[in-house]
Fold this sequence. Notes:
This protein has three helices and 16 strands. By secondary structure, it is mainly β.
Amino acid sequence: MKPSFSYFIFxxxxxxxxxxxxxxxxSNTGTLKITFxxxxxxxxxxxxxxxxxxxxxxxxxxxxxxxxISNVSLGSxxxxxxxxxxxxxxxQNVPGSLSFSFETAENTFSDLRFxxxxxxxxxxxxxxxxxxxxxxxxxxxxxxxxxxxxxEGTSSSSNQxxxxxxxxxxxxxxxNNALKDIFLAIPSDQPLVIKxxxxxxxxxxxxxxxxxxxxxxxxxANMPVCTTxxxxxxxxxxxxxxxxxIMKVANN
Length: 252
């Protein structure tokens, strides 16, 4: 017996209804945008420009500043949302790199976590692309791995040729591991609310002054260069792990 016309009508509406349900399920996500605002002495960082002064009265300027943010996740009581394939290179010289976005489930979150640097697994995973491409000038060798954070510039306090200062901070294993886990509590009066189809934003201030002193004193006159993993690199990493503070949260 051939199927009746009403049978085909039933199948059509069943298919449409199924698609609508799937669309409803898929739409239970919103977008989080994270923006990094690099500052020096409370002012926006400018490369190749102003002369800054560190806490020890040493003058310097900045020609390069970039760092890896990875393993980003959001937390709330009894719930965690993790960004997939979470590796971002924040480069002060590339305005578009100062923000990134990802989709996450609808929820209200109370904290943000991330890693400064590249986790040990990816440090030994061979040639990679995107933010982890060695052409980004943030990779040493397969043994030494990635540079987690990099600052370059000049200072009259430096005893190096052309008064350069170079801090290429890395090391992913052993007692001088420079990887830093960051936990930022979201202000209770500015909760992060992810809504379906909407974009919320967290703006983070990155206070470069902390690079020099918190908790370790890094004086340019004594330590103008650090380009290998080791004790000094870990001290700098201890300092810059304190650079990050949530400035504001905006829910749309």
